[in-house]
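Regression test attached.
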Amino acid sequence: MDEKSTINKDSENIERGNNIEVWEDVVNIKDLLLSILICASAAMGGYLIAPDDPQKPLLYGLVGVVIGFLVSSMIIKPKRTLRFEDEEK
Amino acid sequence: MDLSLIMELIAISIFGAVLYTIIGIAPGTDETAVLMPVTLILVLSGLQPISVLAFFISSIVAKKLTDSIPVAIAGIPGGVLSAPMVEHAMVLKNRGLPDVSIRKMASGSVIGTLIAVPLSLFLANLLIPFGETISKYSNEIFFGGAVFLALMTKNRWLALLSIVPFALLIQGLRHLYWGTGAVPEDTTVFTSFFLGITVGPIILKLLELLNKEIRSNLPRRTTNDIVLKQQEKVKGFPNPFKILDKKETGSAAFSSVLGVFTFFMSPAGMTIFLGEVISSRIKDPIKKATRAISSMDGVTNAAYISGILIPLIAIGAPLSPTALGPGMALFNAPPVFTEDHNLHHILSMGDFIVATVIGAVIAISLTYFVTVKYSQQICTFVFKYIPHEALLGVFLALVIMLAYMDAGLINIGGVILIGLVAGVLHRWGVNYGIQFMVLYAAPWIVGNLVF
């Protein structure tokens, strides 16, 4: 746990200049653009390749969104540090 | 009513509750964006009308229970209706009490549901004789609602002045789409404009990031340090009346009743209004916040349930924001449901009661249990593994896709335009409620401006 948070801190120090607060949480601008790109292209990709039946494009698009979300979650590290109050005492 | 039908209703309700427990936890999942498409798919796939209703009720109850989680842990609205709760939830989050806030909100939700189901069925029954007359005046009601909500805000003149220009923007885009042939003239673009308003504040914020001066003035932080307080385990089946204190239960119940009676008003508007009224005199910030969020969650649940049941049972036309948004497919999903042949015409009063009660009971018993019992585990998991960037990305991707689905490439630009204007208005204090009412009444408002 300790080791992990140090690694996180180091990499964040490098990116410090680009971390900003959007919607009550800290994000990295580059990561944010990357995630929007991944999710949007997965969604639109799913939508556009789907067979031309009613509701199919929407369904494929939703699957695309889920895939986009999973991919971005895997490649982007949350910029939060989490600790429990009781653990420190 | 035979046993196999009851089993089918139970099964479809479990499906709805499980699906929307998961979806609700994911932040930024707009009610309309996630509920309407799935309901539509089920309707078109030929599911029995009564099962569709049970699914829908179970889904909204589950969704409203879980969408308090992202509000509590990340300050991200889990849907339009939880947006007004963010401010109060942040007070609790900053004090390390996000799980308390989840429990209070979920309990408020349960109270809202328990009150709304019988009361809506009762009120709908009373309103049946007036159904037709009411549906004739829907535009006037929405316009009146927008004016009323505008007068209730702090910057009332600004809010009042924004009504007509905003209606012009919406109708202007629709006429542009018709003129350029982006959509046929009998199609009114609605869902994506609705989403545009919902994401307005974020679109504005994101576009501002492209402005160098604004970007360099933004507060910079390397990490978001969150301290969670270890909570005692909830033993047995959680009881909402124990989680909330008496005053909280009372105000949640009171605001739920009002939420049912104002079913035709924007739920978001009513939530903001009642939340402020109920909590404004409490000094202690934590008590103020818990009172506000439990009552607000009660209202949103009550307003959603009444907003779908009353128009369905009494009127047959989508005459409430809930019916016009997430519940649209229950009223109009050609070729299965049309204006003259939808749930209102197909189901009997008994059907409505059975489907609603089964849906609501299943969603409460499944979702409330999970939400309250495992709120801390859920918080920890989301904080540790779900990056904020991915959530924002998902939200925007959904908007882009639905914009494209509604009216093609041109509409992505249109939705960004609406989002920008809505975002600025929102920042100025013209809340979601006013903007949604204007969206519904826009054709009527504009029609009355031309002589």
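Expected vs. actual: identical. Chain B touches chain A through 50 residues (CB under 8 Å).
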